[in-house]
Write a structure and sequence with these properties.
Blueprint lengths: L2 H16 L4 H13 L1 H6 L2 H4 L2 H5 L4 E10 L5 E12 L5 E7 L5 H17 L6 E6 L8 H15 L8 E4 L6 H15 L23 H15 L9 E4 L4 H12 L3 E2 L1 E3 L3 E4 L6 H10 L7 H4 L4 E4 L11 E3 L9 H9 L4 E3 L8 H9 L3 E3 L1 H4 L2 H15 L5 H25 L6 H19 L4
Parallel strand pairs: 3-4, 3-5, 6-7, 6-11, 11-12, 12-13
Antiparallel strand pairs: 1-2, 2-4, 8-9, 9-10
Helix pairs in contact: 1-2, 2-6, 6-18, 7-8, 9-10, 9-16, 9-17, 13-14, 16-17, 17-18
């Protein structure tokens, strides 16, 4: 192994020794650091500065108790987190996730990814992530409000427009952001509208924010396909998930002329050979807050299948995982390739396992990695912060055009760095190097902090 490969291996071993149980965090660090070895070999000063040891360690990790009462006056205790990973290029920026699976390993993995994703946007935002093992599913609005108020009563002291600006994520949508913002405003007795993003339009939110991640994914994929003279029109697309990312990925894919035949939730997936009826999905998930299995009541020719991972057995030209992390493992990747899939674009955060990504790249699949392809959401969050600072609201078209430009720039930057380091179709390497380069330069300029 080369000197820099040894250096990366030493850092990975350090993490395994220090945090042996944090498998998700270890995996994402491995994915990033192993791919930037060619860049490190041309920049040996970063080894001397011990930059990798610094960049993998969060600047601050906050954990706290969240006690709240349900509608029956029964007391519950959850654990809250905020991982403030890196502020070299701006205030910490990243979502809050409310889900039973939330733990420190997952949040550190998401925060680490967020650092480089945010760097790729070229906007002045650092990386962070937070949340709780609270599950909003099945809770009344009043119970969700009580939890959010208890959560913010601790979190408020650690965030601010120039310090840390959370947003939504899994389990944290417009309802939760509203309750969190209201409690922050009450405690601080100040209207700091830029302290949270993903807000409602009546109190500082941005048009295009709900659509941003799904739209941005399709803008990135379209740029990637345009470079290969491939059209999205009439392509068969398999999409997982049925939340914001999946919903608006479906919408934009259909707008580009593709035929989307699946969507899913944690229980199972639907297959509609005639193309997913988006109005039905929105009615079930956004209005009724129901399960995707209800889709077949409205579309009797569609099929519902138990088990969400079976969605990757459906034949397609393009696969867009938009649900959650590690939903495509090596077996699913092999199935997709065997069934003729040629393009994979990651809408969720790291939805493909490391061995699945390696299999896609080895089989010449056009692969759009999450930190680049799903950066649309945080990009519009940063644009929301800008509008709040200016006391202005931009039109849908203005924000959407800015989003298109940002996603094209992210693609071009990732592509150029992949070409510069010898593998023009390896956008994983290209995106990681592009994101790392900016953060590393900023950290070096600011000294040993």
């Amino acid at each position: 192994m080369s000197e820099m490969q040894n250096y990366v291996e030493d850092v990975l071993n350090l993490i395994k020794k220090r945090d042996p149980d944090q498998i998700e965090f270890q995996n994402t660090v491995k994915e990033v650091l192993t791919s930037i070895v060619p860049f490190l070999e041309k920049n040996p000063q970063y080894k001397e500065q011990k930059l990798l040891e610094r960049i993998v360690e969060p600047e601050r990790v906050i954990t706290f108790r969240v006690a709240w009462q349900d509608d029956n006056n029964v007391t519950h205790v959850n654990r809250g987190y905020r991982v403030q990973m890196n502020s070299a290029i701006g205030p910490y920026k990243g979502g809050l996730r409310f889900h039973p699976s939330v733990n420190l390993s997952i949040l550190k993995f998401l925060a680490f990814e967020q650092v480089f994703k945010n760097s790729l946007t070229t906007l002045p935002i650092g990386g962070g992530k937070g949340g709780s093992d609270f599950d909003p599913k099945g809770k009344s609005d009043n119970e969700v409000m009580k939890f959010c108020q208890a959560f913010m009563t601790e979190l408020y002291r650690h965030i601010g427009p120039h310090v840390d600006v959370p947003a939504g994520d899994i389990g944290v949508g417009g309802r939760e952001i509203g309750y969190l913002f209201g409690q922050y405003k009450r405690i601080r007795d100040a209207y700091d509208s830029a302290v949270l993003t993903g807000k409602g339009l009546t109190y500082g939110g941005s048009l295009t924010r709900p659509e941003a991640t799904g739209y941005g994914l399709l803008y990135f994929v379209k740029n990637m396909l345009d470079d290969k003279n491939i059209s999205l029109k009439d392509k068969t697309v398999v999409i997982s998930g049925s939340g914001n990312v999946a919903t608006y990925a479906i919408e934009k894919a259909q707008e580009f002329g593709a035929k989307v035949v699946t969507c899913s939730d944690s229980n199972g997936y639907v297959y509609d050979s005639e193309g997913i009826d988006l109005a039905t999905v929105k009615q079930i998930k956004e209005v009724q807050r129901g399960r995707i299995s209800e889709y077949v009541k409205y579309r009797p020719n569609a099929e519902y299948h138990e088990g969400c991972h079976g969605v990757w057995s459906v034949k397609c030209d393009i696969a867009l995982p938009c649900a959650t992390q590690s939903e495509i493992d090596l077996e699913a990747a092999k199935t997709l390739v065997a069934n003729g899939c040629k393009v994979v674009g990651e809408g969720a955060n790291m939805p493909s396992t490391l061995d699945a990504i390696e299999y896609f790249l080895n089989n010449k699949i056009l692969f759009a990695p999450a930190k680049a392809a799903n950066a649309g959401g945080v990009s519009v969050s940063a644009l929301e912060m800008s509008q709040n600072s200016e006391r202005l609201s931009w039109t849908f078209e203005e924000v959407d055009n800015k989003l298109k430009g940002i996603m094209e720039n992210i693609y071009r930057n990732a592509k150029k760095n992949a070409e510069d380091f010898g593998d023009p179709d390896n956008l994983v390497m290209g995106a990681n190097i592009a994101g790392f380069k900016k953060v590393a330069e900023a950290m070096t300029a600011q000294g040993l902090v």
